[in-house]
Amino acid sequence: MVKSYYAKTALLWLCEQTPNDDWTTVSQSVIKLLDFLDDAVDTGKLPCYFWSEVNLLRFTSQGDREVMKKALHDIRQNLNSHLAREFCVYKPGLQEMLTQTTTKLTERQVRVCLARWSILVGIANGLPGYLAMTTLPEVGCALAVMVRSQQLTSFDVDRLSEKYTYRRNLQFGMFKTLTVAPADVTLQADMQRSIGPDFVWDAAPLLDLLIEDDLRFLLGDPNAVRAWLRRQHQLPETERPAGLPADLRSPRGLCDLLLNIPLLSRALRESVPDKWHEYRQDSESATRTFREERVEECEVYMKNALDYASMYEDLAFDFHIRLGMDRRAALRTACRYGVELRRLCDDPETVREFERRRRRFPDPWGVLPFLLRRPL
């Protein structure tokens, strides 16, 4: 296999050596990266970007490099299949998109479906994250406890709060869209430098791929949202929400509403309250997981783990799809996993260690019992 650090190093060298105008579509950029890595493996030389005298491939054997060559060749030959597999596993909504017609889809049609799905997931994950941060005080309270206790690093806090960062979810979904959308669409999404080292791009061409069914998925009742927009435009300009689009008939209007999560939240709350409450329930579910992290009873964790292990066929499917095991080895591994997990759960030392770690949750002001509504 090819280590991810090799790919990151190759990308840094490519960014330095390749003129801006030579970067076109994401797919072509991936091919450039594969070509660079292929040449590096052939020569056995891949200088570290930060210390160019160090050759990252110096201690790799000929056999190792042959394995890497084979992996790079497989990625190149099956790039679309790899993307489709990454998107389609456990995503019934996307599979429904791909199977709406009995005729074989063209590559462009598949890419359009993948792009639409990525947009929907990014927005649908971003809104609950926004609601969790703005309407559920438990999240802010718990994060404040962790930050002020200074018992967790900033990296730990960022990782734990990541699930509530709606901008991250939204941007991740849009970036995935850029990687899979048809080339003629991504070429219209002009990328421009913003303040600092970051880049922004015009997402309107991407949102132009959405159809009315997609809007129903996101908004519940698109016509109610359209009526809400018309009512807002009848208000004096000073009373209108900031960034209000004229309508949803244009890609620009879709972009201005769907990617402006605070405005989208207000529009749904005032025009389609049932849909807004559905997103709110999603945010509460995520917050419940956050509240119970590291402090739930040991028996509950063990029961959940054993319940999952008991579904060994599902576990074997995970090993087969995600780890690339053959079916027989995946089934044996899943069964062995269940046996070892049962042995671990039956060991009294496991319970003692769990309780010891659970009580180390940082809470210098004693806020946590009130937050969890039960004593530790």
From TrEMBL:
It comes from the Eukaryota. This is Mab-21-like HhH/H2TH-like domain-containing protein. Residues 2-72 form the Mab-21-like HhH/H2TH-like domain. Gene3D superfamilies: 1.10.1410.40. PANTHER family: CELL FATE DETERMINING PROTEIN MAB21-RELATED (PTHR10656), CYCLIC GMP-AMP SYNTHASE-LIKE PROTEIN-RELATED (PTHR10656:SF42). It comes from Amphibalanus amphitrite (Striped barnacle). InterPro entries: Mab-21_HhH/H2TH-like (IPR046906). Belongs to the mab-21 family. Pfam families: Mab-21_C.
